[in-house]
Amino acid sequence: MTLRQFKLPDVGEGLTDGEILQWLVAVGDTVTVNQPLCEVETAKAAVELPSPYAGTVTELLFEAGTTVDVGTPIITIDDGADAPAPAPVPAPAAAGAGTDGSEEPAAGLIGGAAPGGRTAVLVGYGPRTTEARRRPRRGGPPPARPAATPGADYGSGGHDRPPLLATAPDMTVKPVRHGGLEVGRQAEAHAAAEEAATALGAAPGRGRLRPLAKPPVRKLAKDLGVDLAALTGSGAGGVITREDVTAAAAGPAPVAAPAAAAPAPVAAAAAGERIPVKGVRKATAAAMVASAFTAPHVTEFLTVDVTRMMKLRQRIAARPEFAGVKVSPLLFVAKALLLAARRHPMVNSSWDEAAQEIVVHGQVNLGIAAATPRGLVVPNVKDAGRLSLPELATALAELTETARAGRTAPGDMAGGTITITNVGVFGVDTGTPILNPGESAILAFGAVREMPWVHKGKVRVRQVTQLALSFDHRIVDGELGSRFLADVGALLSDPGTALAF
Amino acid sequence: MSVSSATTEVVDPVPGAAAPHLPEQPDLVQLLTPEGERVEHPDYSIDVSAEELRDLYRDLVLVRRWDVEATALQRQGELGIWASLLGQEAAQIGAGRALQDGDVAFPTYREHGVAWTRGVDPLHVISLFRGVDNGGWDPVATAFNLYTVVIGAQCLHATGYAMGLQRDGAEHAALAFLGDGATSQGEVNEAMIWAASFSAPVVFFCQNNQYAISVPLERQTRVPLYQRAAGFGFPGVRVDGNDVLAVLAVTRAALAAAREGQGPTFIEAFTYRMGAHTTSDDPTRYRLASELEEWKLRDPIARVKAHLSRSGVADAAFFDSVEAEADELAKRIRTGTVEMPDPPGTAMFDQVYAEQTPPLAAQQAQFEAYQASFEGSEH
């Protein structure tokens, strides 16, 4: 028997990896040539891979959901032919993306996430995220620089004028092409050199309105603070070269030399780390970019004395219906927000660009931004406005626990209408939150601190927090945003206000 | 909506005229309906023998099989890319079979069906897509120019060649292939202006497969493409590109007119790319599956098969033999592809110029030295 291995091919011009979406065959199955074996998603498309062999499947080397590098064997098929035993199967190595690609909601769509950390595009490959692999070189000294090879050096040898058409370019700057622009530049430099040679006493590179240097060299000089007019060009025709500029920059300042020699250990220590963008990080990034550059954000701040709320919290926590339920300050902020949203339904809305409509939601699906070991997730409590306080407390506790355990279902994250981000748990005062995409308001709840506060005409130590409300100015004007935030603040500073709502 | 009602709805009353985005669908020349019924057209008629009909069917099936096998080979890593002709077989076979000795075809990179009619070995086309060579066939001997990947450039080549024919006094014609997207290219418009100005014996054969990669036709044009010809000053005709008989008749007439000195014709073969633009493309991202289902009802091969069996011109034995031949062809293509030898890395220097220049020789020497600097580079 002969075991044949099918290596993951590059199905789309320059792809480096693909994710096995599903296997269409199992171990033991008999397959024919061109029978689909599996479905693979690449940065370009999801495609079925047909079998190049007929025979019996003996091994599937990767599970569905794995991202595999192009060229890695993915399946072993026994084609039934007589042959010596196969070479040992190399240990399969999954590529960086791992098995959590299912968390990327926009995967596969144009502009969305694509396997391998790329961005899906219609044509072309998307930005590369992998490094090119190099074949090992033979030992010994590296080959001479091609530019120095005699014979390739056409027409420029030994002349101090630039040839009309150089083919031995300044390799450190850029390759010279025989394009119109380069020919024109060469002709220009040639003419300038003629002119300079006839001008009495005029040294090349001096006495001009503008010293001769190529644009990248000008840029370098600007970056290094070198005055080109003060230099004498060593290049053909007095053109100032990159070396002239670097020499001028280093020459008069010998102090720079030890500094240049020293940084090796520093560089090693500061080399840092490159982390592939995937999973929750990638989804978060896409959502934040989409939101920040779609909805014009306005953020307003309010500092609130929440001493009464904190006292109320203790009283409520002692009530029997709250036995076993965590009564956190966040619960009160959530309740205050729900009450205020009932008064100002427009903050609980979405902008429908396609329909040119503002969608005012009938119910409040309250999102809570939760920090989890895998990153930020924003699950929401469906129809939170209808819940009693104990129900809301239970729902919030379950939500955050599920999120921290990494078990939040996609449905729990979909359909949010307004969000609270509790930055206070990290001891932070406030921030300017970015809207959860599709929503028009997000409230940041800062740390509750004991602060000197003017209370009933005297400076007292009070429990004070800061609220920050970001809203989508397409829907919510400053007036509405301010009223909404003031209402939330009023409910927290004097919970009795709720009776008036 | 049930499947059956959907099926009855999508069979449009004007067969072939399915481009709902265009305001008004003009009549298109059709001689064989999607149901396989022979119909007549006032301006174009064709008289094909039973033998010719069977041959056309054979061409269509074999070319499709070649295409399917090449697509599979690409998915197996044996080809770098493949541009599928799926759905456009009739347009290509019909146009290719209209050529006579002395005529020359100037293809894009998708004219595998035309290549087939010119006797080009499928493996010589596949070697190009495997990256082994730049196309293995002799363009002079086959009168089938090398594939042109630059969109629309071949229209200039064809027009220039046609002007040469004219100056030689030869009674032949050039057949330039292009797609709907190429009509937006400068070269194509320039070629048509020149062709019109000099009454060059060239036929522009546009396979309107509805998409320029992902760009739908309505982004290319506000008028049916064939009407553009009027602006250049020569006739334009829209033909059902999935009807091999109509394509054959219309292309024959256009080539005959060109040979007789009546100047160019623009043929818009109204068809549909049933596959992806190339194997690197994912059409599900820009078009609906329902559209494909609609066009499947106008399949270019199914209608010929229906006609053959209904008119008693071919029996089951014939269809089986064609299938068997297709299987053999697929096998030959598969084996031939996998066994193609890799060209040496320096082959790219061989055909840059007719005679190698000193700078190129120096580059080749450098490249050889560079290659030799790697471990395991003995071969």
UniProtKB/TrEMBL annotation, chain A:
Residues 81-113, 126-163 are annotated as: Disordered. One of its GO terms (cellular component) is cytoplasm. Pfam families: 2-oxoacid_dh, Biotin_lipoyl, E3_binding. One of its GO terms (molecular function) is lipoic acid binding. Residues 212-249 form the Peripheral subunit-binding (PSBD) domain. Belongs to the 2-oxoacid dehydrogenase family. PANTHER family: DIHYDROLIPOAMIDE ACETYLTRANSFERASE COMPONENT OF PYRUVATE DEHYDROGENASE COMPLEX, LIPOAMIDE ACYLTRANSFERASE COMPONENT OF BRANCHED-CHAIN ALPHA-KETO ACID DEHYDROGENASE COMPLEX, MITOCHONDRIAL. This is Dihydrolipoamide acetyltransferase component of pyruvate dehydrogenase complex. It comes from Geodermatophilus tzadiensis.
UniProtKB/TrEMBL annotation, chain B:
GO terms for molecular function: magnesium ion binding; oxidoreductase activity, acting on the aldehyde or oxo group of donors, disulfide as acceptor. The keyword Cell division does not apply. InterPro entries: Alpha-ketoacid_DH_E1_comp, DH_E1, PdhA/BkdA, THDP-binding. Transmembrane segments: none annotated. It comes from the Bacteria. Residues 61-328 form the Dehydrogenase E1 component domain. Its cofactor is thiamine diphosphate. Keywords: Oxidoreductase, Pyruvate, Thiamine pyrophosphate. The keyword Iron-sulfur does not apply. Pfam families: E1_dh. GO terms for biological process: branched-chain amino acid catabolic process. Residues 1-25 are annotated as: Disordered. This is Pyruvate dehydrogenase E1 component alpha subunit. The lineage of its organism: Bacteria, Bacillati, Actinomycetota, Actinomycetes, Geodermatophilales.
